[in-house]
C-alpha cells in the first residue's frame, strides 16, 4: 500500500485499473494535509447526525417520561409502554396497528399483482406503449393530500362523480357513502393509495424485466418454451429479489401513512376510528389536533419507539441487501 | 421487448393497457374539467364539458386562498432544500467514493441507515430541536429538515455515480497540483450533471409535495407551503366545489409542467433509484 501514496497515482492506468473494483486513494502516513478532504464529508454528516440520527435515539429517551412538551419532565419508567400496550391506550393502539397491517397487506397485493401484470404487458412486442408509461406514472407525482382531496370530492356520497357514475351505469346499489361507512372507508383509502402508487411499481418491475439477459429467453424460445413458460419460469424468478426489496420498502413506508387519512377522514381517522392508523394516532397524542384528550410528548415518543422497533429490523436488513448488491456492482 | 404476442393477444393486451390508462386519467380529467364549471354544473352535469369555460374560478381560488404566498414559500423552500442537498451530498459522496480512511465503511453504513427509516418517526425531537433553535414557524427550519432528510438517499445515489466516473482526468489534475475540493468542483461535478438532475428530481417531488413537516413545524398563514395552504382552503370552502377544483389544479400545475418536460428523466431516475 505504501507505494500508492499521493503522486504515484499517475502510473495507474486509467480504465485498466478496473480490476481493482474501486478507484481509491490509498493514504499511508498520518498527514493532516492528506486528510484535508475530510472536511467535505462534515456538512452532510453533521446535518444528518443532528437532525435525523440523534432524534431517532432521543425519542427512545423521551418515552420514559411524562411530559406535555413544556415544563419539567417527570420520569415514569415504563409506564408509557404499559399504558399503550395494556393500559388505557391499548384499544386505540392495537386498532391503529391493525389498520396499518391491513393497509400493508392490501397495498402490497394491489401493487405487486397488477404491477407485474402490466409490466409483463409493457415488455411485450407491442408498439406505441411509450406514452403509457408517462400516463401510468403521473399520479405518483401528485401530492398525497392533493390525491386525498380530489378523491374526497369524487367520492362525495351525494354529488361525487363515483356514485353518479354508478347510478348512470345502472349500478345504483354501489352508490354508497364509501368514506362514511365504517366497513368501506379503509378499503376505499387503500384503493386510492394504490391508484396513486401503481404506476411506480409497474415501471420498476418493467425496468427489472428489461434488464434480464435477452439471450436466456431467446434460448428458451428456441427450445420450444411458450411465452407463458418464459414469463413464469425464467422472468418471474429473476424478479423475486426486486419484489422482495420493494415489499420491504412498502412495509417500512406503511408506517408513514398519515396524509391520505388526514385528507380524507381527518385526524380522528373517522368514521368512528375505522381508518385510524398509527400516524394519525401518534399525531393526536403528540401534537393535539381536534378532540384529543391529552397531549403527551412522552406518550407520543413511546408510540414512535414501538413503531421504530417494528421497522428497524426490516430497515437494517434492507440496507444490508442494498449495500451488498452495490458492492457486487449490480 | 421480452415477449412475442400474436394478434389476438396483442388486442387483449391493448384493452387492459387502455383500461388502466383510462382509470389513471379519468379522475384527473374530471379535476381539470370541473375547475371550469360552476358548482351547480359540477353537481348536476358531472360528465359534461363546461357550458362556459369559467376561468374566473382560478382568479377566485388564487385570491381567496392566497396562493401567491404559498407558491412563494414552496418555491423558496424547495429551491433552498435541493441546493443544500446537492451541495452537501455530492461533497460527501465524493469523499466516500474517492478516498479511503478509517471508519469509512462505518460512516457510510450509518448514512445508509437513513435510506430505510421514515424521517417522520423522529418528528418529536426534531420539533423540540427546532423550538430551542427558534426555528419553528420559519421556512429555514423546514429547509434544514429536508436537507438532512434527503442526505441518505442522495449520498447513496451519488456514490454509485461517482464510482462510474473515469479517473483519468482527475489523475492528471492531481499531478498539476489540484486539491481535492478543486478536483471535485471543477472536474467531477460537471461530469456528474445527469446524476445531480436525478437527485434533484427525487427531492423536488418529496419536498414540493410534503405535507407532514409543514403541518408540524409551521403555524402562521403567511408561512404555509402549497399542500398546507390547500388543506386550509379545503377546510374553509367545503361547498364551493368550483374554486376547490380550481385550487387543486393550481397546486398541481407546476409539477405537471415539470413532469411533462422531464418525464423521461423522471421515470428513468425513479426506477433506477428503486432498482438499487
Automatic annotation (TrEMBL), chain A:
Coiled coil: none
Location of the ABC transmembrane type-1 domain: 97-318
Matches recorded under PROSITE patterns: ABC_TM1
Annotated localization: Cell membrane
Keyword Transmembrane appears in the UniProt entry: yes
InterPro entries: MetI-like (IPR000515), MetI-like_sf (IPR035906), UgpAE/MalFG_permease (IPR050809)
Membrane topology: Multi-pass membrane protein
TM region positions: 37-57, 101-122, 134-154, 189-213, 234-253, 299-321
Gene Ontology annotations for the cellular component aspect, listed alphabetically: plasma membrane
Main location: membrane
Highest taxon of source: Bacteria
GO BP, sorted A to Z: transmembrane transport
Protein name as annotated: Permease component of ABC-type sugar transporter
Organism: uncultured spirochete
TrEMBL record, chain B:
Assigned keywords, A-Z: Cell membrane, Membrane, Transmembrane, Transmembrane helix, Transport
PROSITE patterns registered for this protein in UniProt: ABC_TM1
Cell compartments where the protein resides: Cell membrane
Pfam families: BPD_transp_1
Mode of membrane association: Multi-pass membrane protein
Organism per entry: uncultured spirochete
Residue intervals of the ABC transmembrane type-1 domain: 71-262
Record protein name field: Binding-protein-dependent transport systems inner membrane component
